[in-house]
């Protein structure tokens, strides 16, 4: 292999590693790990958006996500979507249980964080702070990456 080809290969590998590191970000709060907070881009004039993440509890006691807040929206609520007969229903929930030794995924079509009264569209590539409040662990501010309108992530165990 020539020296030029080796340098190009190393540069490509370095860029790939940086892209993966930027894509998969997590935050710690005691025994809790908050994995890859993200939101989907919204259309101009769209009044609501969603934020998604995973919470892994490595502790011996359960905890609850009891609230969230973000300056990008007038209000933030914890929501659940589920099928009732042939109809998809969405409703606010008072808390999201995070059992001891388990993980919970907030994702499109299930539990999620609803951003109500968006102050501006969420644009792909932007980031915003989201404060999460847990019943026992306390509060942590995470960085939410705004991804494409159809973004979806599966939790890795």
TrEMBL record:
<dbReference type="InterPro" id="IPR036182">
    <property type="entry name" value="PCuAC_sf"/>
</dbReference>
<protein>
    <submittedName>
        <fullName>Copper chaperone PCu(A)C</fullName>
    </submittedName>
</protein>
<dbReference type="Pfam" id="PF04314">
    <property type="entry name" value="PCuAC"/>
</dbReference>
<dbReference type="InterPro" id="IPR058248">
    <property type="entry name" value="Lxx211020-like"/>
</dbReference>
<feature type="signal peptide">
    <location>
        <begin position="1"/>
        <end position="24"/>
    </location>
</feature>
<dbReference type="InterPro" id="IPR007410">
    <property type="entry name" value="LpqE-like"/>
</dbReference>
<keyword id="KW-0732">Signal</keyword>
């Amino acid at each position: 292999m020539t020296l030029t080809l080796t340098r190009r290969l190393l540069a490509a590998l370095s860029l790939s590693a940086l892209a993966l590191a930027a894509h998969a970000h997590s935050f710690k709060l005691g025994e809790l790990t908050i994995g890859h907070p993200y939101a989907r881009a919204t259309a101009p004039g769209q009044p609501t958006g969603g934020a998604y993440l995973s919470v892994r509890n490595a502790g011996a006691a359960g905890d609850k996500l009891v609230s969230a807040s973000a300056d990008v929206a007038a209000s933030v609520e914890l929501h659940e979507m589920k099928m009732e007969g042939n109809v998809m229903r969405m409703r606010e929930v008072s808390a999201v249980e995070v059992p001891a030794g388990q993980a919970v995924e907030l994702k499109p079509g299930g539990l999620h964080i609803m951003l109500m009264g968006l102050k501006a569209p969420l644009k792909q590539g932007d980031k915003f702070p989201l404060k999460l409040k847990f019943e026992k662990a306390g509060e942590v501010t995470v960085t939410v990456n705004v991804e494409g309108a159809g973004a979806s992530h599966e939790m890795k165990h």
